[in-house]
Design brief:
Mean pLDDT: 83
Low-confidence stretches: 1-7
Radius of gyration: 15 Å
Shape: globular
Structural class: alpha+beta
Strand content: 5-15%
Helix content: 40-55%
Largest sheet: 3 strands, antiparallel
Oligomer: single chain
Distance between the termini: 36 Å
Number of helices: 6
């Protein structure tokens, strides 16, 4: 999957992914910079399989993408999904893009 490409995922997965505090922290860390799984795991006191599970959940939701660079795999935020979720939330609230800009 290329950066910025939004996978065909259900909204339930997209909303479930950030429901876990570990995944929210991972998203927050990736907001600052791209990281390897090892760099991410070093910030937690949980097992590698647990970190892998959390990263896979975030990837399935399309919130995180991975890219191999040499021998390392770097994880980064897929901001396109966040933009779609915000647009969906505004649509649910009955607001249009014009109203957001005017306020």
């Amino acid at each position: 999957m290329e950066y910025g490409e939004v996978p065909n995922t259900s909204l339930s997965i997209v909303f479930k992914a950030p429901s876990d505090p570990v995944r929210r922290k991972i998203l927050s860390m990736l907001k600052e910079k791209d990281m390897t799984a090892g760099e991410i795991a070093a910030q937690f006191n949980i097992s590698w399989p647990s970190i892998s599970h959390h990263l896979n959940t975030l990837k399935q939701a399309g919130m995180v993408v991975d890219e191999r660079k040499g021998q390392n795999i770097y994880y980064s935020l897929n901001t396109s999904v966040f933009e779609e979720v915000v647009a969906f939330a505004f649509e649910l609230l009955g607001r249009k893009d014009d109203e957001r800009v005017e306020k």
